[in-house]
Amino acid sequence: MEYIKLLIDSSIAVLSWTSNQIFFKVPHSENYFWGLIIISLLVWIFEIIFPWRKSQKIFRKGFWIDIIYMFFNFFLFSIIIVGFYEAFNKLLFDLFGIAPNSIALIDLSTFSQITQLIIFFITLDFFQWLTHIMMHRFDFLWKFHKVHHSVKEMGFAAHFHYHWMENILYKPLKVFAVMLIGGFEPEQAYIIHFLAITIGHLNHSNIKLSYGPLKYIFNNPIMHLHHHAYSSSNNFKTGVNFAISLSLWDYIFRTNYIPNENGDTKLGYEGDQSMARGFIGQLFYGFKKGD
């Protein structure tokens, strides 16, 4: 009963927190609801003013389903799943004595705030990069990741067009990453969260950006477009450009591939015509034989 109570209480707490964000009852720095909307509108405006693919419509193919995914994955699913995460964490502690700082390699609290943020950002991004590679290399994970790669025209909201199972699959490695750095997020972690949203939106946007020499550090729309390419070089059978926010991992481990910058790359994957077209159909995709 204790676990059930924790599950229910945690979900109610996140629901209340989300409601408080909507009605401006939280500090601006912690208001991810309106922060997401503002970032989305700004990137969308830049897409409209400076379109890379000029023939692409403002309300491109898949625009509205991407908007649904954005709010579902960022808010609604969090309300549903957070209780399970909290109950699982308690179970680990009760059975094995595993606490958030049990396997810490460093104590993040001993560093300055800016250093904390940098270490936090780099560590989480590396483990997300690893998880992303796993999504492409293991068939049972690729089944779910296909939903994200079914996008046929790129725009900012495609950032959150992914199967809800990815939230579950990414979470354990993200938690592990946080445990390695002391088991807590820096006080100003909201800066990293908003930065990651902005970079992710730009990566999927219809804006031609490479950031000059900074392209070797930060992921960008040109690089990420080729990650979504229907086909790539035979030297990269399981995909290329796995970067989330930081492209440096792809350059270090030689999974980078940018054959051109013209923006007309065909997107998708072989057999993507079998992907369910609607939001509801895609929610259940990946569980049936043949998906």
Shape: globular
Tally of distinct domains: 1
**What is the averaged pLDDT score?**
93
- Rg is 19 Å
Which series of helices and strands comes N to C?
HHHHHHHHHH
> What fraction, in percent, of the residue positions are helical?
40-55%
How many DSSP-defined strands? Answer: 0
Report the sheet with the most strands, covering strand number, pairing sense and barrel closure: none
Q: How large is the share of residues in beta strands? A: under 5%
Low-confidence runs: none
Structural class: mainly alpha
- How far the N terminus sits from the C terminus, by CA atoms, comes to 37 Å
Instruction: Describe the oligomeric state of these chains in a short phrase.
Output: single chain
Give the number of helices: 10
Characterize the structure shown:
The protein has 291 residues and is an all-alpha fold. The protein has one domain (2-283). It contains ten helices and no strands. Helix 1 runs antiparallel to helix 3. The longest helix has 34 residues, at 63-96. The radius of gyration is 19 Å and the shape is globular. The mean pLDDT is 93.
